[in-house]
Amino acid sequence: MSDSLRRVRSYVIRTTRMSEAQKRSYRELSEKWVLPYDRTIDWESEFPECRRRIVEIGFGMGDATWRIARDHSDWALVGVEVHRPGVGKLLWWLEQEELTNVRIIEHDAVEVLAVTLRSESLDGIHIWFPDPWPKKRHHKRRLIQPDFIQSAKEVLKPGGYIHIATDWEPYAEHILQLLSDTPGLANRYDGWAPKPDYRPETKFENKGIAAERSIRDIIFMKESI
Ligand SMILES: C[S@@+](CC[C@H](N)C(=O)[O-])C[C@H]1O[C@@H](n2cnc3c(N)ncnc32)[C@H](O)[C@@H]1O
Hints:
Blueprint: H1 3-7, H2 20-33, H3 43-46, E1 52-57, H4 63-71, E2 75-80, H5 84-96, E3 102-105, H6 109-115, E4 122-128, H7 146-155, E5 156-166, H8 169-180, E6 185-187, H9 203-210, E7 216-222
Parallel strand pairs: 1-2, 1-4, 2-3, 4-5
Antiparallel strand pairs: 5-7, 6-7
Helix pairs in contact: 2-5
The chain binds S-adenosylmethionine (SAM).
S-adenosylmethionine (SAM) binds next to helix 6 and helix 9.
């Protein structure tokens, strides 16, 4: 990991208060479903029933995560998020919906890609509505950077995919260009991807739609050598 990625974070820890329900879920359920970031994930023993291994980065309040887990019981989902109220909310959903195919890592995804995930271990990576950091002087805070994409490519199996969605057009164009310029990744579509059925709408997507912004999906595959 480069020094610049260590120092410049793609997030600011928000001081949003946790609801009583989120606090209770966090207290009672995190031991069961939250994994440490400094230990490699043992997918076979965590998810013996699941055939696809997916990591979702920056799941927010987990709106998309629990719906995908419910609709695809044979997908193993690991959600990575730094915002504790969101972790509490997703734990709450896991309990409500009695889902067992989700684990959470409460840590910076940049380090999770480098430390927690084995090389060529994932079928897919979802990054939906990453913070756009619209001001030019903040662009260095954007999650999607060349080093980050290299780490993401490293943990994908050959044939695995990275799926990014955003409502911020200049960020979408930057991401499309960056992924197109990355050797070993190939666009699954010609330009933007159609929205796949598996991606549920999220709060941030709905905000973008309400502001009449276009939603862009970008899906690239890791090529087999
Ligand atoms: C704009 S929100 C989108 C949330 C959700 N995907 C949605 O569509 O509703 C971006 C989320 O990414 C998280 N995030 C940003 N950088 C991160 C990082 N390096 N590691 C883990 N989570 C991160 C933030 O805490 C925030 O919850």
